[in-house]
Amino acid sequence: MPAVVDLEKCDGCKGRKEKGTSMCVEECAVECIHLVEDDPSTAPHGREQHAVINAEECTECETCVDVCEQGAISMEE
Prior knowledge:
The chain is an alpha+beta fold. It contains two helices and four strands, in the order E-H-E-E-H-E. It has a single domain (3-75), classed as Alpha-Beta Plaits, CATH 3.30.70.
């Protein structure tokens, strides 16, 4: 099963990476993770972006799970 993002936990690597990039995007070997911009005034954690995983392209390698410092990515069961 593909990886999924918990939008309540994902903070888009705020404060750890520059806007427009994140740990999961940088480490994904098949480039199936993309960032979507958020409105910081309404998004959890005041985040400016969050990760979205294309389930059809995900190879289930779990690299994104391992690098996510927020524990926001898990494997769908």
